[in-house]
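> example.struct
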């Protein structure tokens, strides 16, 4: 496994699949090895199918293809990136009233196989619930919880991922390499990525005549970061009002990252907001000194302790006296199952990686990060932190194999092309220029809360639906809840935000019962917000 740069390491809390991002080597397949004239022409392949969603048949047309995005300013006529998508259109629907939802994973730089093959596409790959999925052949079944009953769907791969490619056209290799370097710098960044997705959506609306359709964004993990940026770009640069923004496993402010907390001394919020997820995980693995009867009442109790006595103890810093520190450690032991002496030696501050390594270390097991219901043999029982994610190792192969087979055999796209799970984004630029900032982007921990707030204030009808899993140690649900309740918006706009939590992890949909709940909740949200706009 390649070592992560600090920036990527701090960002690794995002997409469920980001852990795998650095477990392969993109550099074996560089686009700049030779100019590819085919990239500058949009490609597409059409097919047809049907899906049964909770007993209701939906016939659809599928289009797998690419759109080519040009640059800005003096490069506005110069192709920059070819972005791959798979769109599903319900047959016979009125495109003027039929909702359309743009869906993407995060990474940053991830393909969207996870949401496509696990959540809302017409076919779903079958994986084990909380254990390692056996090797191929994998099951690909009708997705009873595809979102096609509620909306047309557009799954988008980030630039450089999937079949999406950055474009460099010069015949001279040296100049082409320099072009590619410029492309990466411009696009592999918070703002460059956001503008690329904004351009793609606007171009897609034109190509398929969907300007008057109800429009939704659905992002997972870093995709929620992207959604905040894109929502503001669409609202305030492209004059495209959205009906709704649906967020799954949210992170808007990276200061709230429990993974990056060890690099961020003086910021105690991540420890506070991760505690309920630590407690949920200990509950699941029966590591608590006294096992509660039910999860959710227990979590409400832990949440109150987290924002009360625990927060006060951490804020006291070196002023915290020994007796009070001992009392807090003993309470943390009751809520996490970690030994009191361990908690004291950690100064009451346990990172996600420490917790994942320590919780089941007495049995030689590492606890999952993206879904802490999973466990796997520890690579090094003497390590301070976990060294891999058992959940990622348990299901990734199934998703990759299923999509590579499906896209070529059923969608008829990608023959002789390499489908990249991740783009080569080792040097992603996390600086960001929020709304209202003049001059250069801010060199600080990424925070796109102002972007979502600005989109909501400039479109006060915009509705936001936040979803998260109780067993997600990458983007803890209580951190997402904290962010939403600290958005810089008027109190009156808080009513535009709704919430749903699930007994699952980062990839909520990897748990079948949670997938059904997610589908039903999102379909209801789209139906209610669509109808609201028509009144």
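> example.seq
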């Amino acid at each position: 496994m390649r070592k992560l740069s600090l920036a990527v390491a701090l960002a690794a809390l995002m997409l469920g699949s980001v852990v795998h991002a650095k477990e392969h080597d993109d550099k074996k397949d560089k686009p700049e090895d030779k100019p590819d004239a085919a990239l500058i022409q949009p490609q597409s392949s059409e097919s047809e199918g049907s899906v049964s969603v909770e007993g209701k048949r939906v016939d659809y047309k599928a289009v797998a293809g690419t759109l080519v995005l040009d640059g800005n300013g003096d490069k506005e006529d110069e192709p920059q990136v070819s972005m791959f998508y798979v769109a599903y259109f319900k047959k016979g629907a009125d495109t003027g009233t039929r909702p359309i939802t743009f869906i993407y994973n995060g990474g940053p730089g991830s393909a969207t196989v996870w949401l496509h093959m696990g959540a809302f596409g017409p076919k779903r790959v079958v994986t084990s619930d909380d254990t390692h999925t056996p090797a191929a052949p994998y099951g690909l079944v009708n997705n009873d919880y595809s979102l096609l009953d509620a909306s047309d769907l557009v799954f988008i791969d980030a630039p450089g991922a999937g079949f999406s490619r950055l474009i460099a056209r010069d015949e001279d290799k040296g100049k082409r390499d320099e072009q590619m370097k410029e492309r990466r710098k411009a696009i592999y960044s918070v703002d460059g990525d956001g503008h690329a997705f904004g351009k793609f959506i606007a171009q897609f609306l034109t190509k398929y005549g969907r300007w008057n359709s109800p429009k939704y964004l659905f992002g997972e993990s870093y995709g929620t970061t992207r959604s905040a940026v894109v929502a503001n770009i669409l609202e305030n640069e492209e004059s495209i009002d959205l009906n709704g923004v649906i967020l799954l496993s949210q992170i808007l402010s990276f200061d709230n990252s429990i993974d990056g907390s060890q690099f961020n001394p003086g910021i105690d919020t991540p420890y506070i907001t991760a505690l309920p997820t630590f407690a949920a995980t200990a509950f699941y693995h029966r590591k608590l000194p006294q096992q509660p009867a039910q999860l959710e009442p227990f979590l409400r109790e832990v949440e109150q302790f987290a924002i009360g006595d625990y927060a006060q103890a951490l804020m006291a810093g070196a002023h915290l006296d020994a007796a009070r520190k001992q009392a807090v450690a003993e309470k943390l032991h009751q809520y996490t199952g970690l030994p009191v002496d361990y908690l004291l030696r950690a100064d009451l501050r346990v990172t996600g990686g420490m917790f994942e390594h320590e919780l089941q270390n007495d049995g030689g097991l590492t606890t999952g990060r993206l879904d802490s219901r999973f466990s796997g043999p520890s690579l090094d029982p003497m390590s301070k932190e976990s060294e891999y994610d058992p959940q990622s190792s348990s299901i990734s192969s199934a998703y990759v194999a299923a999509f590579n087979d499906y896209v070529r055999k059923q969608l008829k796209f990608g023959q002789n092309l390499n489908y990249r799970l991740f783009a080569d984004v080792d040097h992603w630029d996390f600086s960001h220029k929020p709304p209202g900032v003049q001059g250069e982007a801010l060199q600080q921990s990424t925070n796109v809360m102002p972007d979502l707030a600005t989109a909501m204030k400039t479109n006060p009808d915009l509705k936001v639906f936040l979803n998260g899993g109780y067993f997600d140690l990458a983007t803890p649900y209580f951190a997402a809840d904290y962010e939403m309740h600290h958005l810089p918006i008027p109190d009156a706009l808080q009513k535009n935000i709704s919430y749903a939590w699930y007994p699952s992890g980062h990839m909520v949909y990897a748990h079948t019962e949670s997938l059904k709940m997610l589908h039903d909740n999102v379909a209801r949200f789209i139906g209610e917000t669509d109808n609201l706009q028509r009144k």
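> remarks
Residues 1-35 have pLDDT under 50 and may be disordered.
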